[in-house]
Specification:
The protein is built from two helices and two strands. It has 65 residues and is mainly alpha-helical. It has one domain. Helix 1 packs antiparallel against helix 2.
Length: 65
């Protein structure tokens, strides 16, 4: 696997996970772990962070650095 392909695949994975967190925020779904509700704000932070990683990965994969 070349560096470009790895960067693009990684960016796609980060984007999918970020979209999952965004869907959780928009749909206001509850997540329970060990009988406790997890708050929504960690998904907001995760969405921003993973979106940034996806953006950087796509940018690197296209050679625009």
């Amino acid at each position: 696997m070349t560096h470009k392909r790895f960067e693009l695949v990684s960016a796609a994975v980060f984007l999918l996970i970020a979209l999952g967190h965004l869907a959780r925020l928009l749909l206001r779904t509850d997540v329970m772990v060990s009988g406790r509700d997890l708050p929504q704000w960690p998904s907001g932070i995760a969405c921003l962070f993973l979106g940034y990683l996806a953006w950087q990965g796509f940018r690197l994969g296209r050679g625009r650095i």
